[in-house]
Design goal:
The complex is a heterodimer of chains A (about 325) and B (about 325). By secondary structure, chain A is an all-alpha fold. Helices cover about 70% and strands about 0% of the residues of chain A. Chain B has a single domain, classed as 3-Layer(aba) Sandwich (Rossmann fold), CATH 3.40.50. Classes of the chains: A mainly alpha (about 325), B alpha/beta (about 325). Bound molecules: adenosine-5'-diphosphate (ADP) and magnesium ion. Magnesium ion binds near residues 47, 48 and 175 of chain B.
Amino acid sequence: MRKGNVMTATQPAAAPGTEVAEQPGATPAPSAGRKPGGDARETLYFALRNPKVVIGSVVVLAFLLLGLLGPLFLRFAPMDYAGPPMAPPSADFPFGTTTFGQDVFAQFVAGLRSTFLVGLLGGGVAAVIGMTIGFVAGYRGGMIDELLNMLTNVVLVIPGFVVLIIINAYLGVRSVPMQALYIGVFSWPWVARAVRAQTLSLRSRDFIDLARLSGVGVGTILRREVAPNMYSYLFMTFVLLFGGSILTAASLDFIGLGPTNAMSLGLMMNQAVQWSALHLGLWWWFIPPGLGITLIVGSLYIMNVGLDEVFNPKLREM
Amino acid sequence: MLTLDALDKVYKTGTFGTSDLHAVRQVSLDVQRGEVVSLIGESGSGKSTIGKMVLHLLDSTGGSITFDGRDVTRLGFRARRDYYRKVQGVFQDPFSSFNPIFKVDRTFETLRRSYFPRVSGAAWRQKLEEALGAVTLEPGDILGKFPHQLSGGQLQRLLIARALLLDIELLVADEIISMLDASTRIDVLNLLGELKSRGLGILFVTHDLSLGNYVSDRVVILYKGRVVERGATSAVFDDPLHPYTRDLLASVPHLDRTWEEVEAEESRRSARLAGRCLFHEALAAQGRSLGEEAAAGSASGTADDVGLVEHAPGHFVGCFRKAADEECPAG
Ligand SMILES: Nc1ncnc2c1ncn2[C@@H]1O[C@H](COP(=O)(O)OP(=O)(O)O)[C@@H](O)[C@H]1O
Ligand SMILES: [Mg+2]
C-alpha cells in the first residue's frame, strides 16, 4: 500500500481537458479522468493496490463462489424437511434449521444464487436500456433527444418501488428473472441521464466529426469512439445498478412480494419474521440472509468508491 | 468545383427550439481546383458553420451546395460516404481531433476499415507512409504514439495526411493553424501551398487577415453570417470597399508600407465612400430605384439585400450596412 502511494505521488495530475503537447518520447501520462483504455495494465495495477476495490471484490467473489459451488456440497434441497426443527448451528446443519426443520444453509446458498441473478439481470436490463437511451439521446440531439428525455423524466418521477409493488401484487412474480426484468425496467433513468450528459459533451469533440468524415455510421461511432471514453464510468454504473437491484429485490421479497417458485435471501427473512424467529430466538434463521445482503451490497458500494479512485487519478492520492 | 448558393443556417436555440439564431445568411461562394479560397471573419461570424455544412456535418437550412455540377445539398448515408472520398476537413483543435484514449494510428485504421477493407496490410502500410511523407512526417516518429505525446503541428499534419489517403479534391481547413506555434505554422501553410499545386481546392477558414493574404487566391469576407465582400485576394486587399473590410484592414500592420501611407490612403478612401453604398448604387444603375428596391425588400424579406454586386471584374461587394438588421448608410 505504501508503495502504491509513493507511485501516485510522482504522477502528474493532469486534468482531462488540459492536455499539453509533450515531447515525443516522454512517459505517457496516466489515464486521466475517463481514460481507462489508455493503459489497461496501469488501471489494473492501481485497482489491485486499492484496498477498497480489493476488499469489496473479495467479499463479493467469495459470496459468488459460495453460491456457485455450494450446491455441490448440499445434501438437502432448500425446502426439504431435513432435520429437527429449530436446531441451532451444528456440524450437520452449519446454519441451523427453521421452525420446520429446513436446512438454513441450503436456503442461504440458493438465496445467494437468486441474489446474484437478480443483480446481474436487473442491473443488466437497466444498464442496456439506460445506456442505449443515453447514448442515442445525447448523440442525436434534437427531437429524438427531447422525446427520450421526456420518457426518462416520466419513468424517473414514477415511484418505481410502488409500481413494482403493484405489478408484483397484480401480475404475481413467479420467477427470479421476471422480478429482475421488472426491477431493471424501472431503475434505468438516472443512467440514461448521466450517459446522455457525457455523450453530449463528447459529441462536440472534433474526433467525432472526423469519424463521421470517415463514412462511419452512428452505431459504430457510439461503440468505437464514444463508449470507450466512458468505460470506467459505465463499469461503475453497472456496479451500482447491480447493488441497487439486489437491494430492491430483497425489499420486495421481504414484504412478501418475492418470486413464488424460488428461494431468495429476502424471502428467507420474510419467512423468519412470519414465523416469529425473532421472538423464538432463532437468530441463525435471519442473521445469515440479513448479513449476506448487507455485506454484498455494502461491498459493491465500497468497491465503487475504490474504482472511482482508480479511474480518477486526482483521487488516487487520498 | 464547389459552389455554395444562398446558403442559410438557422440554429434553433433555447428550450424546445423556441428562438432562432441566424448564423449564416445567403452565403454564395465557389472554390475551384488548384485554388485556395480564404473565408475570413471574426469569431462567431459563422465560418465554422459554413465549413461544417460543406462537410455535411450540419444540415443547411436553405440554399444549395453543388459539387462538380451535382447538387449535394441533401445526401443520404451512402451518398455522403462517396462525397467524403472527395471532400475532407481538418479542424482547429488538433488535440480534440484525436480520441485521447487511443493511439493516433487508430484514426487511419478507422479510415481503412471504412474505405479500404480489401487493401492488404503491406499495401496499406505503403500508402500510409507515402501520405505521411507528403506531409513531411517520419512514420517511425508518429505511429504507435498517443495524441498527447505529439505536438499540435504534428497532429495537424497527420490529419492532412489522413485526408490525402483518400485522394481528395477539396479540403476544408477550419482555422487549422490558429492553435499552432509560429514555428510550425509556416510548415503547415507551405504544405497547403503544395497541395494546391497538386490540384486540390482548399477552403481555408481563418479569422487572421494576414494568413488569408498569405495563402489565398481569393478571399471571402464574412460578417455576422453575411458575405460583405469577396474577390481576388489582391483586389480586396488593395482596394477594400466595404466599411467592415476597411476597418479590418486598417487594424492590421502592413510590412511593405508605413503607417502614415496606410492612414492617408484609408482616409482618402473613407472620404470617397462616406455615406454611400456601392451595392445600392449599382442596383440603382441597373435601373431599379432605391425606393422600389426597399419596397421589394420589405415585401419579400431581405433576400435581395444580402446579395452582392460586381463592382469590378471578379470583385463583389454587398450593401454597406454592417449587421444585417442595420440601415444602409446611403439611406
Ligand atoms: N450548435 C450550435 N447551436 C447554436 N448556436 C450555434 C451552434 N454553433 C454555433 N452557433 C452560433 O453560430 C454563430 C456562428 O458560429 P461559428 O460558425 O462557430 O463561428 P466562427 O467559426 O466564425 O467562430 C455563433 O454565434 C455561435 O454562437
Ligand atoms: Mg470557428
